[in-house]
């Protein structure tokens, strides 16, 4: 009887035995007690069910009742506060664009540090060697195309990609070849590409983005922005244009970082607007299209920038750290309001609110305004490196870097047990329309990515990113795109989440 | 008895008498027949009612049954045709922006003339002396503002207004003063304005535009674009900026024509985006804001342009003319697809469809591609002047110059009796969602305005202009903004309307 060998493994301790009985019952295992066991098993199952309830109730609650009350107090104060709004306005309007290595970025560092000191936090500036790329002239024009009036050209709206090398100062003129994806490029081969400008006409998937999957749509488009130039250069192209990796419909070019394969010739690379990509593709179907590009960006030697690190010391476990953060650098075309002055502002607002409410959590809340998220990611990398010995003391990170539309909940990357720690937070946030807590593997923040890879649970506001991907990395990323009510909700979510994580009475799972 | 003198005026002929009786009855006039007359009157009224029905039926119908059938045939063909779409694409993509006096405008003239000849029309080019204004460099930057990082500036997105004079080539720097309207400017007086750059921060009323009153919203904003510079110069300002007269939310500046008061110093004038207007207003509330402007447009001597005039001769009354038209020139920032390649294209499509269907109306259909609607309006003015002796033979004008969104019907400017001529047309257009016929006093077309003032009935497609005012006069007025289905509907409406007016069996009221 096969049942016998199973029965012989029946555990000896009562709880183990009850579990085993349930397992045996559910598995339909035949035992030597067979028929009489069916009844006994049912009885044991009943007993076990009763035993399980007190066992669950006894599992210590993540938060004290006092903490839960405080979360609601923080929420109310945040939803009424205009602190984050004013900080977003100041960073974007008064300081302006804050490219890595720029004077404005440095001014922003000093401003945030001063503001955090004013709130009584312990502030230090963490030195980061950042790339220093400076945009120059950038013009494009069609110099030959079917139907062209003799003696004219037609202007193309474009913007150099971050990290691109320059064309000759007098420009570069070549015929354009249009491909929709890497496979089409490969199919053209060296013969079809050599000496030409390649236009990667891969369309940003707006329908996917509008369905709540903006990051996925962005990821697909970014492959061409990041790697298009080297793929084209491998086949002898002289420059690469990419259709903007974004959802703008307003002749706005989306800039962004690109990288060169060190084994391949560096060729200039720029993003054209979706309108210009359509125009070039239309004309190229009719006949030869030549483009003259003038791009004069400069890659200067790496320079010094800073992460701003400001600690609100914990009352019971000051050595344990919950990071709340956004990135202080921005692109240069707009004023970086949605990407990411608002993220820094809601992080700054956390200690502001706690001071206002005279609250101090058990663990240390560390506000970080990251430097160089956009161009090199050196701020986050430097932090992770310098804190290598102290990673275990980082219990959680929060980063907001997807704008400030209405947040619908929390994204997180952590052990499944974290769900139990988030449920009470979601209960609080439900009243502001942010009841979700969705797990995403692999980290949910850019600057906090390395910490996440080393096991630190990471958290972020969960947005519909439809608006974000319409404006981010364009000239239209400006303060007016911030809706005060939505920003207040992001501020509330950030403060409630951060305080809860820092004040939990149980260790966070990792 | 007062009735006696009325009775003595009773007409002698039977119809007149019946009418008089009705009048007397309805007026309660007392006659010397008084009581017996009441009965008689009632009887007469009954008789008259019967008489009136055949009398109305006898009123000649505007259109023959054959014509009404043909309208439905034309509609079906138009809704399936891609002719107008291809013409719009060619004018905007292959020829590109078509500023008055430019090589592209000349190329467009030749293209349309050739295409009309190809369709077998009698074509002539009408010489027009057009203004010749050429955009130059145009940059703006904030050189001083509260919070500015030392050694930096902040870029402002702007575009020179058509007709503006230049700044010195090295630029012009001055403090900005922000006003919301002319009254605030006047309140500042000479002392508050002298030596400064005035920003007119009048907001385009998007809510009004979204409610279907785009033209009204536009008219209110255009007052500042057109007259702001001279109003500011009168008080000693050195330059004038206006918040864009349009609904863009994408850091797109809307250009457009401005005019100088000849008695006042000419100062440079440009439109800033709504984002930049907001930014400047925000900073100016905090302290001094200085702007450096470099605008180098040139006003060259007037040059020769052409209206393209192409006649499809009428079969019965070839001397009577129905104009169908759009304007061929455009602004230079975009490619003038919605303003107004699509208007020219739907006009060109009318003879195309009639040739395809082998239809020829009683009157002559005259396709006109107007030159210089945007900058000087010289095309329409020249036409009206040269046709002065022939105005009576112009029985109607159709002009489409508000883009190509879904048309909801017909706008017209004519005698009230015209309603009877439009009802059968609206019946046909109802099936495509364009059942309205709305009267607007004072003309419904820009280039046809002078003819309208001289009594020629004018017609236009009736649109919700929400999309139009978001893109018109900006870099984003490009071919992709044309929705093929909507354009087909505009083409259908234009062809049905034009053919009906040209083929009516009754004279059009005027």
Concise synopsis of the structure shown:
The structure is a homodimer of 510-residue chains. Chain A is an alpha/beta fold and 510 residues long.
Tag the structure with descriptive keywords.
disordered N terminus, 42% helix, Aminopeptidase, 8-stranded mixed β-sheet, Glucose Oxidase, domain 1, 510 residues, homodimer, alpha/beta
Number of helices of chain A: 15
- Class from helix and strand fractions of chain A: alpha/beta
Instruction: Note the overall shape of chain A.
Output: elongated
State the CATH class of the largest domain in chain A.
Alpha Beta
- The number of E-state strands of chain A comes to 16
Helix content of chain A: 40-55%
Low-confidence stretches of chain A: 1-56
What kind of oligomer do you see?
homodimer
Cα gyration radius of chain A (Å): 28 Å
Measured between the Cα atoms of the first and last residue of chain A, the distance is 44 Å
Q: Report the sheet with the most strands of chain A, covering strand number, pairing sense and barrel closure.
A: 8 strands, mixed
The most extensive contact between chains is: A-B, 44 and 44 residues
Number of domains of chain A: 3
Q: What is the percentage of strand-forming residues of chain A?
A: 15-25%
Strand order within the widest beta sheet of chain A: 1-10-12-11-13-16-14-15
Mean pLDDT of chain A: 90
Q: What is the CATH superfamily classification of the largest domain in chain A?
A: Zn peptidases
The CATH topology of the largest domain in chain A is given as Aminopeptidase
Q: What is the annotated CATH architecture of the largest domain in chain A? A: 3-Layer(aba) Sandwich
């Amino acid at each position: 009887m096969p049942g016998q060998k199973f029965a012989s493994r029946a555990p000896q301790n009562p709880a183990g035995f009850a579990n085993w009985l349930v397992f045996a019952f559910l598995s339909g295992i035949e035992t030597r007690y067979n028929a009489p066991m069916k009844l006994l098993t049912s009885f044991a199952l009943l007993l076990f069910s009763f035993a399980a309830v007190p066992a669950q109730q006894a599992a210590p609650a993540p938060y004290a009742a006092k903490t839960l009350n405080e979360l609601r107090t923080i929420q109310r104060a945040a939803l009424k506060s205009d602190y984050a709004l004013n900080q977003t306005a100041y960073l974007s309007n008064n300081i302006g664009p804050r490219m890595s290595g720029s004077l404005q970025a440095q001014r922003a560092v000093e401003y945030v540090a001063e503001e955090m000191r004013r709130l009584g936090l312990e502030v230090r500036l963490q030195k980061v060697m950042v790339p220093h790329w400076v945009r120059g002239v950038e013009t494009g024009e069609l110099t030959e195309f079917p139907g062209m009036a003799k003696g004219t050209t037609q202007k193309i709206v474009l913007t150099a990609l971050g990290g691109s090398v320059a064309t000759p100062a007098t420009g570069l003129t070549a015929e354009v070849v249009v491909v929709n994806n890497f496979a089409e490029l490969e199919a053209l081969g060296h013969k079809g590409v050599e000496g030409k400008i390649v236009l990667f006409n891969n369309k940003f998937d707006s329908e996917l983005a509008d369905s709540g999957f903006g990051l996925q749509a962005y990821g697909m488009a970014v492959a061409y922005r990041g790697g298009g130039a080297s793929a084209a250069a491998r086949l002898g192209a002289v420059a690469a244009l990419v259709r903007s990796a974004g959802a703008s419909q307003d002749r706005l070019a989306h800039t962004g970082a690109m990288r060169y394969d060190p084994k391949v010739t560096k060729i200039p690379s720029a993003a054209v607007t979706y309108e210009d990509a359509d125009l070039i593709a239309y004309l190229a179907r009719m006949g030869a299209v030549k483009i003259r590009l003038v791009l004069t960006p400069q890659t200067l030697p790496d320079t010094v920038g800073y992460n701003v690190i400001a600690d609100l010391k914990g009352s019971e476990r000051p050595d344990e750290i919950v990071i709340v953060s956004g990135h202080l650098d921005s692109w240069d075309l707009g004023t970086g309001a949605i990407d990411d002055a608002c993220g820094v502002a809601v992080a700054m607002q956390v200690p502001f609110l706690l001071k206002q409410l005279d609250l101090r959590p058990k663990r240390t809340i560390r506000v970080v305004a990251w430097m160089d998220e956009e161009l090199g990611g050196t701020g986050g990398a430097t932090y992770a490196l310098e804190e290598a010995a102290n990673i275990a003391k980082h219990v959680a990170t929060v980063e907001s870097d997807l704008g400030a539309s209405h947040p619908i909940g929390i994204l997180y990357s952590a052990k499944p047990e974290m769900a139990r720690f988030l449920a009470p937070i979601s209960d609080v946030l439900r009243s502001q329309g942010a009841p979700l807590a969705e797990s995403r593997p692999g980290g949910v923040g850019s600057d906090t990515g390395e910490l996440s890879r080393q096991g630190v649970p990471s958290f972020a506001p969960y947005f519909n990113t439809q608006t974000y991907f319409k404006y981010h990395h364009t000239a239209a990323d400006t303060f007016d795109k911030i809706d005060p009510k939505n920003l207040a909700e992001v501020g509330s979510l950030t403060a409630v989440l951060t305080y809860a994580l820092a004040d939990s009475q149980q260790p966070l799972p990792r």
